[in-house]
Amino acid sequence: MNTKKLGGSHIKVENRKLVFNHIFNQPGISRPQITSQTKLSAASVGRITDELLNQGLIKEYDCEAGNVGRRPTLLYVCGEKIPALSIELDRDKQVCAVVDLSGKVHYRIKRNFQVHPHSPDELCQLVQEMIKEIMNHPDLADKQFAGIGVALPGLIDLDTGMVRMSSQLRWHNVPLGAMLRNMFPDMTITIDNEMNARAFAESLYGEIRHEQNAVILGIGSGVGAGIVANKQVYRGSGNKAGEVGHVIMDPNGKMCECGRYGCLQTFVADWALVEDARLFKQDADIYDILQAANNGEQWAISIINRFVRYTKIAISYFTSLLDPGAVVLSGSLLENHPTLSEWITREYENQPQAPFRLTISGLGHDGAIVGAAAQLLHETYNEYL
Ligand SMILES: [Zn+2]
Question: How far is the centre of ligand 1, averaged over its atoms, from the C-alpha of 172 (Å)?
């Protein structure tokens, strides 16, 4: 006889989690299928699904045309009933969105505030304004949000939400978690590195949802990676894993904003490409580089070739070190200029023996906001997920 009440309750939570996960991962699954896959009793599956239905976390539909016998009822997670507010902060772009548990973005506001060294207070003010705008929107007024998930580039203390360092935002030891909790005392708030959020989103809804191990490489105003190991975001000992942008590629290279020479981002970040281009063409931007390369101008072809070469080196470091099943390309530079992704993927086309799949993020610009919301929702509903 089991006399451990705590143990019994734990098993109940685990069983509910198991059933919810089966419905989440296999939309349209039936109760008999859950029973057969989980080895739980039909009575337990019936009780748990009734509980989830009553809480509005799942919904059911009768199967249309049935064969012989009783038609099964198909179960789906009621993602739209479980929304979160999601924030993405970057050097020149801030997004606030409503995202639900199924990864659907319902509403989005974007600002293009340029950060500067004294910006934490101003940026928090902007976040507050965007959240208020969303909460006051007539279509969203009756929504109950599970909390606020935030994603930004930098080294972040997960427990406190302290931003230890963000070279993109030019922040050092900014207590973002405390500042936002002060503004929204009744809301659950989670803050994480943007690439970890993207990795979480990709593993739930994106290109790598069937992969156990993968790397998401993000290239934009900085360079970073999110690592998925055994279906979990790998964070290292201090939530700093994947900070590949400051790996030194050439000690005699260009000075980086971190104060060292020749970091990876000095070869592949958007500003590095633009800096080189302006040696040839005043006020050149990425569009000018791509157009000039298309016209066969050597300086532009050289910039892109070097970009591709160093991106390939970064990919090879990850694939040698981690043996991922897939590498996903993401980040604002590649999302705004898909031609650059094509230049990279072309390099791998003649290597069918490559032991990993190179792919481009399908979530694109939404990767960070979808991931930040998903992290918040999974933390809030961790008894189910
Ligand atoms: Zn650096």
Answer: 15
Q: Which domains does the chain have, with CATH numbers?
A: 5-77 (1.10.10.10), 82-198+368-380 (3.30.420.40), 210-362 (3.30.420.40)
The H helix count followed by the E strand count for the chain is 13, 16
354 pLDDT higher than 80: no
Q: How far apart, in Å, are the Cα atoms of 357 and each of 245, 264, 277? A: 22, 22, 32
Q: Residue 157 has which token pair? A: 């203390």
Residue at token pair 């190991």: 229
- Distance (angstroms) between ligand 1 centre and the Cα of 265 equals 7
**Predicted local confidence at residue 6, as pLDDT:** 37
Q: How far is the CA of 368 from the centre of ligand 1 (A)?
A: 22
- Specify which residues 100 forms β-bridges with: 83
Q: pTM for the complete prediction?
A: 0.85
The alpha carbon of 98 and the centre of ligand 1 are apart by a number of angstroms equal to: 34
Query: How far is ligand 1, taken at its centre, from the CA of residue 263, in Å?
Result: 5
